[in-house]
Amino acid sequence: MENTPDCPRCGKPITIDRMTICPACANELQRRIEWLGQIGMPTLQQVAYRKARFGQKAIRSGNKAFAPTPFDLEAQQVYVTAEATLQQTGGILDIRPLGYDRREQPRTLRDWVYLCPQLVRQMPQLVRTPGAAGMLDRIVKACDMVSAKITRPGEKRLVGVCTNCLTFRPPVRTPIYATETDGYAVCPACGTFLTLNDVRLAYLKGAGLLHITRTQSEAARWVRENTGVQVTGKDLKNWRTRGKMPSTRHVEGPYWAWNIIELLECAEARLKTGNR
Ligand SMILES: [Zn+2]
Ligand SMILES: [Zn+2]
């Protein structure tokens, strides 16, 4: 662990052997690629082909001479560019079949549907390549472009405040707006890539909303929706009867006042132990 170099992107120490970026940047790289694969690219594909229309109504005039073009060319350009960025990332990892672009950079011919999960699987190798920091910068840029193209204007709601800006001295409360289906957002003040579940939960805790009154199965659903961890009502009952939820109180009938921190701790424990 002596003489670990600093991350070329953020300057923090690289604490893991042979990695070329720090663990936080490595984590961001993975989340960005997951976002592109699960939300960004599939949504942009719909936009590019006008299957989804954001912020505008379909033109229903009878004038056939002014029918809209079948594609959103600008969205298509972003789509192609973002996919090329993923293909270059795959090129670094030598994913076959491999071709070369105009600047002689290796670039796999695979599409984003194949690449996104594959890149996540090969993350341990990716974060050990010399170009990982530059690659992350390009992926970030691609995410920003894609995100700008797929965001439906006027439908954003306050989710919470940026968890990174909150750590400043003095703390800064930067509001984060997002649509209901967004899983991620970029802080407009500090540029941090945020997982909205974290933002929501931090907001709930900060607002002192420490208890939610729910039945057991509703509480389990709340945990699943807010953490993505597959928790059942039975799991909650087990934890509770084993004395792991001392602040959770019985209210009436099937209703309990669940302590949010305890719910989250149980979700975390569940995540660590897998299916147990
Ligand atoms: Zn870093
Ligand atoms: Zn921020």
Comma- or semicolon-separated keywords:
276 residues, binds zinc ion, PhnA protein
Strand order, main sheet: write it out. 7-9-8
Shape: globular
The percentage helix is 40-55%
- The strand count comes to 9
Q: What gap, in angstroms, lies between the N and C termini? A: 34 Å
Q: Sheet bearing the most strands, described?
A: 3 strands, antiparallel
* Element string (H = helix, E = strand): HHEEHHHEEEEHEHHEEH
SSE class: alpha+beta
- Number of separate helices: 9
Mean pLDDT: 82
Explain the layout of strands and helices.
Layout: H1 23-48, H2 73-92, E1 98-100, E2 106-108, H3 112-121, H4 123-126, H5 132-150, E3 157-161, E4 175-178, E5 184-186, E6 193-195, H6 196-206, E7 211-215, H7 216-227, H8 233-241, E8 249-252, E9 255-259, H9 260-273
Helix pairs in contact: 1-2, 1-3, 1-5, 2-3, 2-5, 7-8
Bound molecules: zinc ion (2 copies).
Residues 7, 9-10, 12, 21-22, 24-25 line the site of one zinc ion (ZN).
